[in-house]
UniProtKB/TrEMBL annotation:
The chain crosses the membrane at residues 12-43, 119-141, 147-164, 176-193. GO terms for molecular function: phosphotransferase activity, for other substituted phosphate groups. GO terms for cellular component: membrane. It comes from Saccharophagus degradans (strain 2-40 / ATCC 43961 / DSM 17024). InterPro entries: CDP-OH_P_trans (IPR000462), CDP-OH_PTrfase_TM_dom (IPR043130), CDP_ALCOHOL_P_TRANSF_CS (IPR048254). This is CDP-alcohol phosphatidyltransferase. Gene3D superfamilies: 1.20.120.1760. GO terms for biological process: phospholipid biosynthetic process. PROSITE patterns: CDP_ALCOHOL_P_TRANSF.
Amino acid sequence: MRSINPANAITLTGLVGGLVCIFCLQADYILPAIFIMPSLFLLDKLDGIVARKLNCASEMGAQLDSLADAVNFGVLIALFAFGQSGESLYVCAAGIFYATCASWRLARFNCEQSSLGYFSGLPTTNAAAWVFVALACIQWLPGLLHVGATVVVLVGAALCMVSTIKYSNRGLTTQILYLLVPIAAGLFVYQALSYA
């Protein structure tokens, strides 16, 4: 327990939040998961800020952060998309592919040195945020269109993660997510309350 520091405590809080969301989705409690999920993106950002400010970054923290990201932005997002699609087998396959690519991207990130200010491929957190936003936009599509669009979104995000395209970690596409993710959460809440 000596490795527990403020940054790692934030990472663990995010991991616990992701696990709570997974259990909520499995029990068909969609609203608690929708309320928690946006905070996971903020916690992922916050742990890095705290680690740098307090000079408490460590190898343990880096590995813990990747584990939390694999759960929160790989498995959780895939399960959420699966549930939103009406548990389509096509989305199940796409979700497995997405979660696998997220894990691959995180492992590659841990082994490679990224260029200053850039990542190789779309970061897992950003990919998950864009999938979350896209799912909010397509949730009202009818049956097969909804399933098809979800598959395209998941596979597209997965391929972006494992690509070698240089992606700025401070670009507009990252900053705009701070606005779009809460809006997407609001749309999901509206849908959930409408069908309650």
